[in-house]
């Protein structure tokens, strides 16, 4: 699944919203994102610079709940459900591409 991060939406909020949608659960039932990574650091990594200009490029992939989550340029998320048989494989090596 691909998710476009809204202009006024933080990367951390987008991750929680998108994962809850993919898994079909309420956001409050998910493990807190802060137990996986620092949400403020994620937002700072992909947020605007102090002068308001956007940061150039970047990609971060991590596991949250039952999904591989990739944040690209702070603009898009790609979510791929984790198959228990291939949990330790990188998401770019997963055969089924969900879009």
TrEMBL record:
Residues 8-77 form the Halobacterial output domain. It comes from the Archaea. This is Halobacterial output domain-containing protein.
């Amino acid at each position: 699944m691909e998710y476009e991060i809204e202009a006024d939406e933080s990367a951390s909020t987008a991750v929680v919203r998108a994962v809850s949608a993919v898994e079909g659960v309420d956001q409050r039932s998910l493990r807190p994102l802060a137990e996986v990574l620092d949400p403020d650091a994620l937002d700072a990594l992909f947020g605007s610079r102090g002068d308001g200009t956007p940061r150039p490029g970047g990609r971060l992939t991590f596991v949250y709940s039952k999904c591989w989550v990739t944040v690209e340029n702070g603009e898009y998320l790609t979510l791929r459900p984790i198959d228990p048989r291939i949990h330790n494989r990188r998401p770019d090596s997963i055969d089924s591409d969900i879009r």
